[in-house]
Amino acid sequence: MSSVADKLQRKSQRQTSVKQVRLKLVYIDFWSAVKFSFLVAASLGIVLVVASMLVWIVLNSTGIFGDIDRIFRDILSDENFSIASTFSFSQVALFSVVVAVLNVLIGTALGAIASMLYNFSVRLTGGILVGFTNN
Fold first, then answer.
1. Among the residues of 4-88, which ranges form H helices?
2. CB contact set of 48 (below 8 Å; sequence gap of 6+)
3. How sure is the predictor about 2, in pLDDT bands with cuts at 50, 70 and 90?
4. Cβ(44)–Cβ(33) under 8 Å?
């Protein structure tokens, strides 16, 4: 049974100008994985906060909150009910920041756990074989 890397090597032997390199990924540095997962999670957290604020601004400027308030006031027969006061900009911003911070913590921890699990699984499987060609 031949692997994809073997097929690429045979194909590259037919072409004289292409050189192929076969590498095995046998170790992921723990701290590199933690730093990388922290940066990815932090950037996604920033995107989450900005997106939730923009969605709130768009919904508020189009008057959706007023329409929802009117519908719920008719359904509940309560004149004091207000979605707009419940979901104010500051509350939405605070909630999205809290969720973003939790996502950063969990994402960083999951990146660390994933690197440890990969390093442990390499002892059983030998790593991932990756083929590269130089065109």
1. 4-14, 30-62, 64-76, 83-86
2. 96, 99, 100, 103
3. low
4. no
CB 48: neighbour CB atoms within 10 A? 16
Residue matched to tokens 């004091």: 80
Q: For the chain, give the mean pLDDT.
A: 87
Ramachandran category for residue 130: left, alpha or beta (phi over 0 → left; psi -120 to 50 → alpha)? beta
The tokens describing 31, both together, are 């701290």
What is the pLDDT confidence band of residue 1, given thresholds at 50, 70 and 90? very low
Decide: 10 and 134 in contact? Cβ < 8 Å. Answer: no
pLDDT digits (tens, 9 = 90+) for 11-57: 656 655 667 888 888 899 999 999 999 999 999 999 999 999 999 99
Query: How large is the angle between the packed helices 89-125 and 30-62, nearest 10 degrees?
Result: 150
Q: Measured between alpha carbons, how far is 83 from 66 in angstroms, rounded to an integer? A: 8
d(CA 100, CA 108): 12
For 122, the enclosing helix (H) or strand (E) is: helix 89-125
